[in-house]
Amino acid sequence: MVYRAYEHLLFKEVARSDVPEHIAVIMDGNRRYANRVGKLANYGHVRGASVTEKVIEWSYEVGVKQLTVYAFSTENFNRSADEKQKLFELIGLKFDELCQDERTHKRKINIRAIGDLQKLPSGLRCSIKEAERCTANYDQFYLNIAIAYGGRQDIIQAVRKIAEKIDEGQLDPEDITESTIADHLYPVAGDPVPNVDLIIRTGGDERVSNFLPWQTCGNECATYFCAPFWPEFRKIDFLRSIRIYQERLIEKELAILKRNAIFLRTLEKRDAEMPHSYPVNRIRVV
């Protein structure tokens, strides 16, 4: 009862202020959680997948427009064949469930996978393709699932596509801007993943692990590192992360107001110290 009361209070608190439009989540700690409770790694992944479903629900509920979750990195290919197989089967199952879930269609959730999908098993690619197909026309909430994804790899593939366009005469190097690069990042088809406002990482590590470097570093997004392993991540942890984002916005606004006040005082001081012996030209507006 105490937890529910605090959760309700926290939700009302964050709902009174602006919420981040785009949240990115590094879902860390599934394997360590499984090891702690004496289970195999797949147990942690299954428990973690259920938490991911809840975070999608919470994000939609609080008014977030885009959610990007780090499901499988390029470094994860170094894991054992058995763990990868079970993980790919689980991810494929979740894509199928999302596609069939009536909440997906009622809420008009657009599902997109970002990453080098050609590295994935054909069955998983089919599940991804179907989920993207059946939600392609939705635009109320975007769920981006980073799979076989690496931030540097993303930038490299964008540079290659831009180089091809230059080589084919479709693009002038002088016309390349930040927007040009952003437009060529994942996903390959459709609108690119926008700048991130808040990045969350569970599991206790304070690093971003090559996740959306262009969209996070360039935007100076807020970060929230927390100790719980991903299967233990609760709604109050999620709401606290949004509160951190809101507190940072307030700090930014106060800093701007402080700078403006200092600037105005400086101008007033200079104006008071300047001699007024020069004639003042007056302009009459008719």
Write the layout of secondary structure elements.
Elements (H helix, E strand, L loop, with lengths): L1 H14 L6 E5 L3 H7 L4 H22 L3 E8 L7 H20 L1 H5 L2 E6 L7 H13 L6 E9 L1 H17 L10 H6 L14 E4 L11 H5 L4 E4 L9 H39 L13
Parallel strand pairs: 1-2, 1-5, 2-4, 3-4, 5-6
Helix pairs in contact: 1-10, 2-3, 3-4, 4-6
Distance between the termini: 71 Å
Flag low-confidence runs: 280-286
CATH topology: Undecaprenyl pyrophosphate synthetase
Structural class: alpha/beta
Overall tally of structural domains: 1
Radius of gyration: 24 Å
What is the average of the pLDDT values?
91
Major β-sheet strand ordering: 3-4-2-1-5-6
**Which strand-content bin applies to the residues?**
5-15%
- At CATH level 2, the architecture is 3-Layer(aba) Sandwich
- What characterizes the major β-sheet? 6 strands, parallel
Number of strands: 6
Supply the CATH class.
Answer: Alpha Beta
